[in-house]
Design goal:
The chain is about 35% helix and about 20% strand. By secondary structure, the chain is an alpha/beta fold. Strand 1 and strand 2 form a beta hairpin. The longest helix is centred in the middle third of the chain and has 20 residues. The chain starts with 8 loop residues before the first strand and ends in an 11-residue tail after the last helix.
Length: about 270
């Protein structure tokens, strides 16, 4: 008998209400290991709200979300990160006055074992662990071709490379799922192409499932294998890029419904 495939992430009738407004309602999403899934929709459709629900910033008022079989409702954001969900944000959130290397090293902190006294007195164990963390951080920077910028302050990186640094730092949390919130926003075509290759590398090298919010449809259509379309807080459609591109309801949600009387007899 074949073993049942368990989703890395599953949302079941997930929703949240602010006062009388249902911002997200009855959202059902499944993501499996190694998948690259798109979450698209018009502005205000509720995409970032879903990310905020999944990462513990908001508490669902209906439904639940499950990571690798574990129900996550009620966990605080730091507990969600420890469980294995990492994300980037629409607005870059780096430690700008820290170096590129330090930005990645700080994400390894949850796995470091040196206690307070060992850290204060800089014991041999502290220095051993510090060296190992530096090596791991540099390996991640090399994957994103950022190792040459290791000693620069994060704020001095070009915009596109700051985005890549955010992803590298997320990877350092030893995640099971990566949420990317509009990573291509503000990028030029060269930076977007570099981002695309980095996302593909993550998937191929680590098998990390990725849920991507993005308004750059050419990027979404070229790298995602399945896409969920959100409109007014609910799933409007789901399917392959080809299925979504030809879906009349999706086209109307983005472009508006064509006037049925247009072109008729006067």
């Amino acid at each position: 008998m074949a073993e049942e495939k368990i989703p890395v992430l599953e949302t079941k009738s997930l929703g949240i209400q602010f006062g009388g407004l249902k911002a997200v309602n009855d959202v059902n999403i499944e993501i499996y290991k190694g998948e690259l899934i798109g979450l698209i929709g018009p502005n205000g459709a509720g995409k970032t709200t879903i990310f905020n629900l999944i990462t513990g910033i908001y508490t669902p008022t209906t439904g639940s979300y499950i990571l690798c079989g574990r129900r996550m409702n009620g966990l605080k954001t730091h507990q969600v990160v420890e469980a294995g969900i990492a994300r980037t944000f629409q607005n870059i959130r780096l430690f700008k006055k820290m170096t590129v290397l330090e930005n990645v090293k700080v994400a390894f902190n949850k796995n470091m074992k040196a206690n307070l006294m060992q850290s204060i007195f800089r014991t041999p164990y502290f220095w051993k662990e510090e060296e190992e963390t530096t090596e791991k951080a540099m390996e991640l920077l090399k994957l994103f071709k950022l190792d040459g910028f290791a000693d620069q302050f994060a704020e001095n990186l070009p915009y596109g490379k700051q985005r890549l640094l955010e992803i590298a730092r997320a990877l350092a949390t030893d995640m099971k799922l990566l949420l990317l919130d509009e990573p291509a926003a503000g990028m030029n075509p060269v930076e977007t192409a570099e981002l695309k290759e980095s996302i593909k590398m993550l998937r191929e090298k680590f098998g990390i499932p990725i849920l991507l919010i993005e308004h750059d449809m050419s990027l979404v259509m070229s790298i995602c294998e399945r896409i969920y379309v959100l409109n007014f807080g609910e799933i409007l459609a789901s399917g392959t890029p080809d299925e979504i591109a030809g879906n009349k309801e999706v086209i109307e949600a983005y472009l508006g419904k064509e006037d049925e009387d247009e072109g008729g007899d006067v």
